[in-house]
Every structure is written in C-alpha cells, then in structure tokens.
Amino acid sequence: MSRTDYKNLVPLVTESRLARQYAAIRERVPAARRRRFWEGAAGWAVAAAATTALAVVVVRSERLRSAPLDDAAIIESAAAVDGHPGPTTSVTLADGSRVDLGASTRARLTSAKAKAIRIDLERGSVDIEATHLEGRTFVVGAGPYDVHVVGTHFVVRRDPGAQVTVQVERGAVEVSAAAGTSGETRRLAAGDQWSAPESSALPPAAALAPPSPVANAAPAAAVGASPLPNAPVTPLTQAAPAATPAVGGRRDESARDLFDEAQRARADGRPLDAAHAFDRLRRTFPHDPRAALSAFELGRLRLDALGDPRGAEEALRDAIALGPSSPFREDAEARHVEALRRSGDGAGCLSARAAYLARWPNGTYRRAVEVGCGD
Amino acid sequence: MRAPDHATRSNAGPSDAALVLAARAGEAWAQEALFRRHAPMANGLAFRLMGRDSDVDDLVQDAFVIAFGRLHALDDPQAFGGWLGSIVVRTAGKVIRRRVLLERLGLRRRGEPIDIDAVATKIAGPDVGAELGKIYAQLERLPAEQRIAFLLRRVEGMELEEIARATGVSLATAKRRIAAAQQAVERWVDRERP
Questions:
Q1: What domain count does chain B have?
Q2: How far is B55 from chain A, CA to nearest CA, in Å?
Q3: What are the pLDDT digits (tens) for A200-212?
Q4: Do A364 and B11 touch (CB under 8 A)?
Q5: What stretches in chain B show pLDDT beneath 70?
Q6: What is the pLDDT of residues A268-322, one digit of tens each?
Q7: Whole-number Å distance between alpha carbons of A82 and A7
Q8: Residue A107: φ, ψ to 5°
Q9: A117: helix, coil or strand?
C-alpha cells in the first residue's frame, strides 16, 4: 500500500457528521468577544483617597465590581505581557460615561463631582464614551493640553515627554492649553485626529508666545512656545506619515506589537484603532511579513467598517504592491475593484477589473468583479 | 507540518490568513469557514492516528476547540492548516495515554475493534486490509509517543523534522521513537512468518 493509498484511509465524513462536530465545537468555544476573566490576572489597581463625591463602578472584563472612586483616585491598568493585553480596565462613572484604559495606563480622577469631571492622564491612553449632560464639564488633562468633552466618544493618548494624540469618533471635543497657560482652543469634530509633541509645549508660562490664530501659528517644534501647536488635524482614516507615528506610536514598538494591537482593537469592536495600528505597521515596517496582510486588513476595515472607499483603495493597492505573491492577493484585487467603484473612479475600476480577470480568469470573485464597476 | 494544498490555493475563497484574522476578531462565519476547510484533513489524520472511527469525533472536536482558543498564538495566520494538524497529533497522543490509563484502571475495555482495516480493504483489497488491521492492533501495544511517531512517518509520510515539530520533541527523540516502533513491528512480523 503506497502512501498515496494511506491518505485515502479516511472515515466517512458526511455533512451531518460535520454539522454535529461543529455544533459540539461551538458549544465549547467561548464567543470571541467574550473575554475570560482570569486572563491577565495582574488586572487593575485602584487607590482611592479623599472624600466621597461620585460613586463609580469599575468594570474589569465581564465581571462587575463596585468600588467608590473619589476625587484624586488613581486608576491604573496592567501592562501588556508578551504582547498580550490584560483584560480591559474600565471605569463607568455614575452618569454613565465610560472610561476604558489602554495597557500600562495611569490616570488620576482629579474631579468626580457631579458637575465637573476631570481625568488627568499621566501615561497611556483612555478611550472615553461620555454622556451628554447639560451644565456638566468633562475635561481630560494630558500634560500641557486639556481636552474638553462636548458629549462624544474619543480617545486621548499620552506618551509623557513625547506626544499627545486626540482622536474623535463621535461628537466633538475642544483641545486647549492646560489651565494656567494661555493658548488657542481647537475644536475637533467626529473623524478628526490631532497630535502634537509634548516636550515643546512645556515652557514656563511666562515664556509663552502670545496666543496667535491657529492658522498663523508657527510650528511648535520651531519656536517651542505655543502651548497648542498648530498640529495638523487629520481625518481619522487618512494615514499618518510613518516618520511621525500617530495614535499611541512609539518608536520602539515592533511590528508584532502593532499587529497584536490591531487584533485586539478589532476583537474589541474598535475598528478605528485597528485601522490605525494596521496603518502604522505597513508604513513603519514595510518589509515585515505582516505588512501586506496589514494593508489588506486596513483596506477591508476602511471599506466595510469605516466607510472610506478612497482610503480603502489606497490600502488595497498597497497590499497588492507589498505582497505580490501573497495568498490573499486575489481577495485584495477583488476588493480593490469594489473600492474603486465605491469611490467613484470608473476608469480605475475598469482597469482594476481587467487586471483581476486577466490574472484570475476562474477566480472566486469573478462574477462579482465582472459586474463590479456598475457598467 | 505541511499545510494542506487547498489552504493556500488562491482560488479557494478567502485565504486562511484572512479567515484567521476575521475569526480572531470574533466573526463566527470565519471560524466555521476554517472548520469546513480543514475538517476533512483533521478527520482523516485523526482516523489514521487512532485507527478507530469512534475516536475521531472527540479528537477532531478537541483539536478545533484548542485551535480556536489559541488563535491569538498563531504567528503565521496562513499556516493554520499545518498548525491544526500538529494540534491533532498532540491531542491524539493525550487521548491514547488517557485510554491506556483507563484500561489499566479497569475503566475501559481492552482491544476494541480497529476500523481502519475495513477502509483499507475497500481501497487495496482484503489481504492488505487484514494486514493493516493487525499492524494497528500491534501498534496499540506501543507507548503513545512511539505509535504516533511511527504513523506520522510510515503512514503520513512526514519528514523527520516535521515529526519533531508536530510532536514537540527534538529530532533525536523523534528518530528514537520511530526506530523503537519500527523494531517492535519488525519483531511482530518475524514472529508471524511461517
């Protein structure tokens, strides 16, 4: 009996048998979005102090814990271990606003009063879903900047001494110089991202240049003066330059870190964060084996989750260039056709369609691609 | 362990890499697609390792449960098929060891019939089927590690390095196990000669 014959030694695998097997598997595999509470047991630490003001609920993973957090409470999250995050550390304020802490984050709940909430971010990132309450102020301090919440979902990241980043998913926020310093106020709307170096914005108040209109402000790095540098506001789905990694970008982060970060963000239902991580990976590490796949996944996210067909088109084009022999090239080319159509580039769509059909005459997506340009 | 050919064929739908990423992101359809794509391989491998149809379902289910639970640990998402195969192999070893323990404790009946000879009979004739059935019966007497190493080498046709990787041991250990199993089978064949 040859080895080829041995390979034919298979049990009878019927459709009903497969269905039975898969049903049993599904029963035993927890839903992917459901985290196991014992993961990352280092978890969180809360050191509450001072007077009782506003009750909050601390949520770790799916377990609910109640703990009184008062003014000056410190909230911390665990560091990532071997690239794997601990469970999400979440703080839900009594008004319903929710604060999710990224890995290795330390923040101070400076004020938890009903009419005035202030969180000062010492390091790491906070993802905030703020409820809208008339008359209440909600401020996130990030070193030399204050982010004033208008009622929104936004993320503030602080890399002490290096950079502060704000990205807004819904609603709006206003970024200003921290209290006690003067400067411009910039309003960020949904879809905006703003980053600025922190170190250049920390001169003594007396040395600050007089406030100037944002449009005319000199680059902060050049004058080291304006407490609110005229940092560009970037649409969230537009890629940040590789040389200045945006959201949470650290120069020592590895491709694997970014890939893991993107996976976590996707699993947590944060497509924007996932897109940013994939984007940083492909731009910062274009020769990494994960770069092409990251570009492909970025394209999918932009197309499916973020409603950005132009951005998707660029990412998918990059995926094809980065991985000309990748196993997902056909998928990328088919998606590229779709992205071009949805972005209104009729000529580009026809050209990409012709390229797909030439390369994959019997491809999986042939039928969809053939009618994919709407002609 | 080599990935099945279809796992990388570009016209076979979304790549394994894309499916793994989607499954990691919690998309149930991707998990099911991975199961559908690799279940035939897993069932075949489980059957050839265990020799009994009745062992296959539990082994396949255990392997997929482990795989889906550890997707985050898969460095190369495109290598899902080979990775799953390694999990089947290691899980088979555990199942066999557990079975031996149960038999020693009197909690499981010894010598349940082998099924693989019936399949072999259909493919290669009754004489080959009978011979294979006897060999599997003899292999049952071997330690799980030796038995699996032998089957991976002689039935699956894997290279030594692949066997070492799949079973999580050094190359030298893999060679030793195969050699020990080979000697046991040869001794049995010698005894059977008229």
A1: 1
A2: 11
A3: 443 333 222 233 3
A4: yes
A5: 1-13, 103, 106-114, 122-124, 192-194
A6: 778 888 899 899 988 888 888 788 888 988 998 888 888 888 999 999 999 999 8
A7: 39
A8: -145, 155
A9: strand
Q: Which residue's entry shows tokens 């993961």?
A: A39
**DSSP string over B4-29:** PGGGT-TTSSS-HHHHHHHHHTT-HH
* B67, closest residue in chain A (CA to CA): A29
Q: What's the whole-model pTM score?
A: 0.41
Q: Which residue has the higher pLDDT, A340 or A50?
A: A340
Q: C-alpha distances in angstroms, A46 versus A88, A91, A126, B21, B33? A: 14, 10, 15, 34, 43
Interface A–B counts its CB contacts (< 8 A) at 126
Residues of chain A with a CB closer than 8 angstroms to some CB in chain B: 1, 3, 5-13, 17-18, 20-22, 24-25, 28-33, 84, 260, 263, 266-267, 289, 293, 296-297, 326-331, 360, 362-364
User: Is-contact A122 A113, C-beta < 8 A?
Assistant: no
Answer yes or no: do A25 and B35 touch at CB < 8 A: yes
What pLDDT score does A88 carry?
A: 56
Amino acid residing at A81: V
Cβ <8 Å between B43 and A13: yes
Q: Which domain holds residue B92?
A: 1-112
Tell me if A45-235 shares its fold with A255-370. no
Class of domain A45-235: mainly beta
Cβ–Cβ gap A362/B56 under 8 Å: no
Q: What CATH number did the domain enclosing B1 receive?
A: 1.10.1740.10
Are the beta carbons of B8 and A296 separated by less than 8 Å? no
Contacts of A111 (CB under 8 A, 6+ apart): A53, A71, A117, A118
